[in-house]
Write the structure tokens for this entry.
Amino acid sequence: MAVVGGGTKKILYTLKTAAQIGLLDSARALGAKNTCKACGLGMGGQRGGMTNELDEFPSVCNKSIQAQSTDIQRPIPEAIFQHSLEDFRDLTAHELEHLGRLGQPIYKAAGDDRYRTVGWDWALDRAAHGFAKCAPERSFFYSSGRSSNEAGFVLQLLARLYGTNNVSNCSYYCHQATSEALANTIGTGTSTIELEDISGCDLFFLVGANPASNHPRLLHKLIELRRRGGKVVVINPLKEPGLVRFAAPKMASSLIKGGDEVASLYLQPFAGADIALFSAIAKVLVERNAVDETFISAHTRDFGLLQQHLAGLQTSELLAECGVSHAQLHEVVTAYTDSKATIFAWGMGMTHHCHGVNNIEWLCNLALLRGMVGRRNAGLLPLRGHSNVQGIGTIGVKPVLPEQVFSRIEERLGVTLPREEGKHTMASLEQAHAGDVDAALMMGGNLYEATPDSDWAAQALDNIDFKLYMTTTLNRSHVTGVAAGESLVLPVCARDEEPEPTTQESMFNYVRLSDGGINRIASVRSEVAILADIGARLLPDAAIDFSEFKQHRKVRQAIAAVVPGMEALADIDVARQEFYVGNRLLHTPRFQMADGRARFVAHKGQATPASAHLFTLLSIRSEGQFNSIIYEEEDSYRGISDRWSVLMNVADLLELGVAEGDLVDVQSDNGIMKGLRAKCFDLPPRCIAAYYPEANCLTTRALDPRSHTPQFKSVPVSVSAAR
Ligand SMILES: Nc1nc2c(c(=O)[nH]1)N[C@H]1C(S)=C(S)[C@@H](COP(=O)(O)OP(=O)(O)OC[C@H]3O[C@@H](n4cnc5c(=O)[nH]c(N)nc54)[C@H](O)[C@@H]3O)O[C@H]1N2
Ligand SMILES: Nc1nc2c(c(=O)[nH]1)N[C@H]1C(S)=C(S)[C@@H](COP(=O)(O)OP(=O)(O)OC[C@H]3O[C@@H](n4cnc5c(=O)[nH]c(N)nc54)[C@H](O)[C@@H]3O)O[C@H]1N2
Ligand code: SF4
Ligand SMILES: [Mo]
């Protein structure tokens, strides 16, 4: 097969002439006993295919099928790698992902302009060499949330025995604010409810999330809730069409009538102004004596502080700050006081702000005020992103291990771990940008496109001498920010191809077992085996025999021995018994705080810092993407056919003299997006929305000081008609 020169998109031309693109058997994939790879809601596992933990079946989910679609591709033909990095960078994210599966290790030497395929033995030696020649404190290890508990555990142990706690995961771009806030208020860091509790609640607050696209099966639950007379309150600046009405594919009755109503009440505060709204709700609850005094005095502390704080606020000022009317405030408070069992759920609209932790502490305040945490059918539900992001955190892929896990690893595995505090994701990239990182391992994910301030991110990554990626398909990180240093990319099995079973934890704290076992591409390897092989080469004298960890059961036994609540993992492959992580679900008000009481926290809303930019940009996801993986251009629920679009309020369009469909430029302190197609949308004035990851050329590196999460959803920008 010849590599064809000339013109753009040469690689695609090569592929076309080779006619090699094709799909491998997909029918088996959908029926097999594996956890759904896409979102954190959790589906499949030992119940099979699309069944959930309540045995609800069948419930086809578009996202799950999309996630399979890139895994079941044929391997990328070897000749493609004769192309230069520049050719690869010409491709769109969609084209890169759809070149096929990475079938063999590829390597690029420092300064070279292209990858070449290499053998496994050579690649593993090189991987170990890349870390052996650097000082551990000048390295970091990152994992996305698609990898298994087993791979995550071996990754963090490898890093720590090598000598660094610089171990982080994508939750530092995602739900870290949730973990911080919940630890500070109720003493645990995850959902207090299980899926079944949604079947028993009568009110559901859905704040800063768009599950119609991002957690599709949640919509069935919300429609069921509406049908039994319950209410859904949506709080979101953007009027999401999929949260107004939704046609649930599982429900024939829903499809026939053209969809069901989802939101009973839709509040649209200004972006980033939610705390003003939450404060107003809390103030009215207190003024109306509609708080649960018995619960507050028996199970909480610091209510006095909150009362004092609320007394100093004016309701009308709070409403002016968030742009919600008195009538709507009255409606939401009435819905809440009428409810006997309320659930609060939230997503990235809460966490992607410099006050992300404060936002979530306020949601906790609202729940605690009416005793809605620590009982059946009521509680707190963070809507997690990746299908195993919660598990990756539970088993220790984080910069600071809980003291108990740390000491148990040392005692029970007979090793000594480093004591220095590890760095979170952005801190490691800052270190890289300063030229102080020599080696990095990235298991899954797409750090370049996930990070704010794209040019800066590329530079930070390019400053790392040796980069090791583990992936199923190619993405922009493998071809951007790799020009200067050495880069090695290893092809891994997808979840259903794992040679041995693996486990995953859902956002309801439910641990599933995936059988794996489908052999699509013989030359790819399991993440656990790769890490164990690197461990054996890099740390031959370690107190742990990494080769033993190639047996996933051995890894699970180690996790069960050191992570409290995970004991049932030890024999899950024999018992085939999926389980809830211990001490997480809160069906009684016993909080894991020193005094057993949950805590109220009183923060002011965030004053918007003065800026020359008059608009605030929210970066959002479309129906046709999973993070940086773009499956299709179209965003069906929002009726947008082109990702290079910007959603704007009609008054702003008029003021700029721009008609719907015209092109506009959006500029921040970091960059510019030129020629975005204006789409008239129902969102507050001066607030605009554009798609992530493209919008990361505009986002800034401002972080929430408490969770270190970038403010992806409140970026100061200017908008003008395209020149
Ligand atoms: N199809 C699909 N599914 C996915 C993903 C995907 O990319 N595609 N990604 C996965 C991942 S990793 C994650 S984390 C989740 C993300 O799922 P979501 O949490 O739903 O994430 P987003 O779409 O980024 O943003 C959610 C909503 O926040 C709103 N919002 C923005 N700013 C504010 C604000 O200041 N206040 C309030 N109240 N709302 C605000 C936006 O309008 C948007 O509707 O989805 C997971 N599932
Ligand atoms: N502006 C802006 N930026 C954001 C966000 C936003 O809303 N706005 N959202 C943030 C959020 S919530 C998140 S979670 C991050 C996402 O950040 P990441 O998790 O780092 O990125 P993804 O795009 O999910 O990674 C997709 C890649 O994972 C690899 N992959 C897929 N499956 C597997 C597998 O089974 N094993 C391995 N080893 N690799 C696999 C493939 O290379 C695929 O291209 O982005 C963050 N960045
Ligand atoms: S809702 Fe999430 S976990 Fe369930 S099938 Fe869809 S993508 Fe998978
Ligand atoms: Mo996420």
